[in-house]
Amino acid sequence: MVAKTVRFVSASELSGATPGRPGGIVAVAIDDFGQEIALTAAQYREQEHEKIRIFDLWHDVRFLSPDELHPDDYRALYPKDARLPDKKIHEILKRVAARYRQTL
Fold first, then answer.
1. Engineered SS bond to 97: which of 10, 12, 30, 66, CB 3.0-4.6 Å?
2. Counted domains in the chain
3. Are 93 and 74 in contact (CB under 8 A)?
4. Are residues 69 and 18 in contact, defined by beta-carbon separation less than 8 angstroms?
5. Domain range for 13
6. Rounded to an integer, what distance in angstroms lies between the CA atom of residue 63 and that of residue 54?
7. Contact call for residues 26 and 65 (beta carbons, < 8 A)
8. Distance of CA 68 to CAs 1, 24, 50, 55, Å?
């Protein structure tokens, strides 16, 4: 199976991203045919990720940098965390962003 590339990118690299406001584009996936698929948080969550991995349907995913993700989009991605306050979500996203920067 081919290794996938998932990269965090700034909002300026995702057409339709709306940092500071929920509901914008949070990811762009490059499919098996080289087509770009723009996804909101709700659309990304609804994808059949297991099928995508098994059949190698996505070759690249550009995902909005965690420190630019709106708490409501985080909640759309992780509904089990829907009751977390914005402050707690910001803390989670800052930790993720810091870990990501350490791996660069």
1. 66
2. 1
3. yes
4. no
5. 5-103
6. 20
7. no
8. 31, 11, 26, 31
